[in-house]
Amino acid sequence: MNNINLDKVTKILSEVRNKIPLVHCITNYVTINDCANILLSYGASPAMCEAYDEVFDFVKLSSALYINLGTLNKEQEQAAVLASTSAKIHDIPVVLDPVACAAVPKKIQVINRILQVGKIDVIKGNIGEIKFLAGQSSNVKGVDSFDTGEGALECCIALSQKYKCTVAATGKKDFITDGKRSAVIENGTEMFTKVTGSGCMLGALCGAACGASEDKFTATVNAILSMNIAGEEAFKAANTPGSFRVKLIDCIYQLSEEKLKEGAKIVWK
Amino acid sequence: MNNINLDKVTKILSEVRNKIPLVHCITNYVTINDCANILLSYGASPAMCEAYDEVFDFVKLSSALYINLGTLNKEQEQAAVLASTSAKIHDIPVVLDPVACAAVPKKIQVINRILQVGKIDVIKGNIGEIKFLAGQSSNVKGVDSFDTGEGALECCIALSQKYKCTVAATGKKDFITDGKRSAVIENGTEMFTKVTGSGCMLGALCGAACGASEDKFTATVNAILSMNIAGEEAFKAANTPGSFRVKLIDCIYQLSEEKLKEGAKIVWK
Amino acid sequence: MNNINLDKVTKILSEVRNKIPLVHCITNYVTINDCANILLSYGASPAMCEAYDEVFDFVKLSSALYINLGTLNKEQEQAAVLASTSAKIHDIPVVLDPVACAAVPKKIQVINRILQVGKIDVIKGNIGEIKFLAGQSSNVKGVDSFDTGEGALECCIALSQKYKCTVAATGKKDFITDGKRSAVIENGTEMFTKVTGSGCMLGALCGAACGASEDKFTATVNAILSMNIAGEEAFKAANTPGSFRVKLIDCIYQLSEEKLKEGAKIVWK
């Protein structure tokens, strides 16, 4: 059973590389370059279209829509909502990264608006953000979460039922569920917390994976596993953050299904 | 004849380094950092001024204006048009990168507005974009072109006459023309398609070269040749995209007229 | 006396790493990613919050506010002023980087507005900018200063009295004063002028240091010394700009109080 699941997960890497999904990203400017580069290295094609009068039509051309709520300006915020409506109409998968929703309550309004007029297929946040959305308190500071992950899977499942979507909470361990199937991934590296954009880049990869596969749960597991295994390899090559960032992009590019299979530490629930 | 041309082309590198042209860039946020860094490595001075109430006066101080249409917001779009007017009045060369004009037809309105109230000295796009502007269909997906380049030079010449400017179309081969003189450059590396911003950075270099030389055609050939030779050297040093990006900036910095001459694969037409 | 001062300066590195100050940055998009990454490597936590309706409340959560005037859009500009008001009310230190104030006179209006409704604890600019603010002419071109630094300390002291804050002017030598105590730092590397964002990153570090220490003068000296020593080490490892940028982040991460002490070339005035 577990091997069957893992096979399905790792295959998504090849599906991304075969399909080259166009991932339409509306994301913060801090890490927008990193998101574009990691998408290219993963095998996808990035498009950072965010002009209000372009996004509705552009979503139609895309394989997936990635919305990241970190420091969006007004035009981006409105474009994000409109893009999600287009995604609903045109049946394009939507991945949401609710950056800083626990620190900036206004983000919740944007999420509710997206749920109201658009849709969310996958929500991927750090454990603090996911717990907050599930109605639980957590230890957060600014955009960072210092939560140890206790009770995280239960929160993911609850949020999955509330939003009717796949939910992923990242931290030392990563928790993914679609309400029925769940996985805990124990790969990764502490170095992710020493560079900006690890979470944003991961969200973009979730978009790419969902743009290549109908099975959003399995696609999300692939994106998170890919990021974590590449992170582990990058850390082996470079244990300082400047060099680590460079190697991370290299290692995403050099991923193979075999590497994912060999390295995976997944517990299926 | 060919050697005379090549001499003229390679000399522009020294002209950039002697003049240190101030290149005023209005460009997308995805790759704005890359554009600034490659300009510095080439020998130019970047200025990313885009505030609507500053650009008119700032253009006067500049050696060249680079406008890149990728994901401009409203303020940038208006600033780009106004800056082009200032460039016309103050006789500053304008390089335009019509990013995604084939995928997002609204871009054409901005281009037409720039032609109407400002001017364009050089238009540099991928083959798909240039063909689209010349009225020909092409194989594009999002911001990327998968065109093989057949008929590209003819399209460049047609567009050059339509817009009365130098035209460059990039792809596996690069095509440059001012309507009278034409060149095909066969240098470069596939790795340019694995990192974001190769095209944007090249556009910025075209701005720098045009800011250092009156001969826009020859300047554009230098910018494209410099990018391609540096790309070839970077790929020799690093065949994965994260490291390649770093080496590309290094190799632009380390370019010399001799390296350009030795490596150049240019066919003059 | 000098050793006591140097001890106080170097200790701030540990204070940053113990406190992990949350540095709220409103900064230009050219180098926003670099600022976030260098803050993480220094030991601080970056937050690039700039939405007008979020900044007032977000400042309260922060240890310091860093405002960088390079190419701010309208929303950022208004957010910067509002954030400075919040910082005044909530007693959060404010570091201002007056990028391009000598080239774009409109920047002065923003600075005056911040002084009127908010406050400035530290102003850190290049020598050209600081001289301009102090009412002296200087040799500037775009955002870059080519000033040799003659009379710089006097200008810093004058501006310190005018704005009632700590003032730092950077160049070949760096000058810091709070009006009573002054320091001249002779560390650093020419390579800072070959990459974009050296000044912006330094400003962010000043924010982090001031977020960890009450003594703004000593904190600013630490930030500048840290940047310079890391730059010297990065240059030893990589003398080309692409690689230098990567190593700079690595070297900030690897700084220690001992390295700062051994390398420091500070003249106290």
The ordered H/E elements of chain A are: HEHEHEHEHEHEEHEEEHHHHE
Going across the biggest sheet of chain A, name each strand in turn: 2-1-3-4-5-8-9-10-11
Number of domains of chain A: 1
What is the architecture of chain A at the second tier of CATH?
A: 3-Layer(aba) Sandwich
Multimerization status: homotrimer
Largest interface, Cβ cutoff 8 Å: A-B, 32 and 30 residues
CATH topology of chain A: UDP-N-acetylmuramoyl-L-alanine:D-glutamate ligase
* Mean pLDDT metric of chain A: 94
Report on the structure:
- The structure is a homotrimer of 269-residue chains.
- Chain A is an alpha/beta fold and 269 residues long.
- Chain A has helices spanning 2-19, 32-42, 52-61, 74-90, 106-117, 127-133, 152-163, 198-212, 216-237, 241-253, 257-263; strands at 22-26, 45-47, 64-68, 94-97, 122-126, 140-141, 144-145, 166-170, 174-177, 182-185, 266-268.
- Chain A has a single domain (2-268), classed as Ribokinase (UDP-N-acetylmuramoyl-L-alanine:D-glutamate ligase), CATH 3.40.1190.
- Chain A is built from eleven helices and eleven strands.
- In chain A, the strands form two sheets. The first copy, chain A, has a nine-stranded mixed beta sheet with strand order 2-1-3-4-5-8-9-10-11, sandwiched between helices. A two-stranded antiparallel ribbon of chain A has the order 6-7.
- In chain A, strand 6 and strand 7 form a beta hairpin.
- Chains in contact: A-B, A-C, B-C.
- The A-B interface holds A 20, 22, 29, 32-33, 36-37, 40-41, 45-51, 53-54, 57-58, 61-62, 73, 75, 245-250, 253-254 and B 28-31, 33-34, 70-74, 100, 103-104, 106, 141-144, 193-197, 240-243, 245-246.
